[in-house]
Amino acid sequence: MVGKMPKPGELLHLRALEKGAPVAPPLVQASMFHLPGDPTGVPGYGRSENPTWEVVEEALAHLEAASVALFPSGMAAITAALVSCVEAGDRILVPSDGYYATRVLAERFLATLGVQVEMRPTVDFQNGGFDGFRVVFIETPSNPGLDVIDIEAVSGSAHEAGAKVIVDNTTMTAFGQSPLELGVDVVVASDTKAPSGHSDLLMGHVATNDDGILGRVREWRKFSGAIPGPSEAWLLHRGLQTLEVRFERMCQSAELLAARLAAHDGVRLVRYPGLEGDPSHDLAKRQMARFGFLIGLTLADGETAERFIDRCRMLQPATSFGGVHSSAERRIRWGDDVAEGFVRLSVGCEPVEELWSSIADALAESVTEN
Ligand SMILES: *Cc1c(COP(=O)(O)O)cnc(C)c1O
Hints:
By secondary structure, the protein is of the alpha/beta class. The protein folds into 2 domains: 227 residues, Aspartate Aminotransferase, domain 2; 126 residues, Aspartate Aminotransferase, domain 1. Helices cover 35% and strands 15% of the residues. The strands form 2 sheets. A 7-stranded mixed sheet has the order 1-7-6-5-4-2-3, sandwiched between helices. It has a 5-stranded mixed sheet with strand order 8-9-12-11-10, covered by helices on one side. Helix 1 packs parallel to helix 7. The radius of gyration is 21 Å and the shape is globular. The structure holds pyridoxal-5'-phosphate.
């Protein structure tokens, strides 16, 4: 334990430590704090504040160049952002081909509370303009199709129409894309993916420079009780320390693998924003720092795709993505609007030539048996 309890907002990891103090941040596992008399200015109760969250929020705030509120999952962060920006009678626009849980949240819960929910496919997102919307929610590149939306253009016209713009930046992280710099109001992200990086926790965050929204988001967290566990927060902090090196490696490997997959006879279609000729490529080059670590590949049919995933010794058959180990799955099994043979491949940190030979072997085996 730290000798002296840090105050909320105190710069924990930048603070000069007392000689002999642990360098790793404190894992503060507490619901109660010693609180005689005046309760202001110190941690008081575990649903309102926790020094471990603050270390993580400070690291994320540095990456996002914005204020951050930490949540126990990406969906908890998305819920907080949406609930903080809309009221009954408002209209919101969400992508019809983005992460499915965001659509379910909007259609099955926000809609029953009186919010009008409309959807558009990512590729047609700007058609029809944004008049009358309170919130325009985008996800780019979209998961799993990897279509890209022009963040700056959407932001500009949505703001003209009086809407707030929320971007789900999960697939890129702050190292791959900076939506706040391109004008949006709020970034939400699932830190379950690349930021944690080791497939052992769920976490998410909201980042914004809008103090009104941030205040509502923090209030929502406190009163809804959607709070991160200190241990998971601590583990996320560990993950964040290597996020940049992992992300660089994953993107670099993905670029190489996407090009080889695109040239492979057994693969029908490869979607990767970094490929010349990909429908997302020009826009991706303009607005993204890297092209990401997700690849969408379409094989002949569902059986071939299952066999490929099954036979590949270096691919973990699993949902979710962004871990150090490469993983893959057929998204149609969750009802995404993709081909039977569509595989979402999340490229990890393995030595890339070894990874490629496992993929090439599995393709050879699964495609010839067809
Ligand atoms: C995984 C994911 C989420 C949800 O995150 P959880 O941490 O699972 O709640 C939201 N958006 C995108 C794009 C995702 O991939």
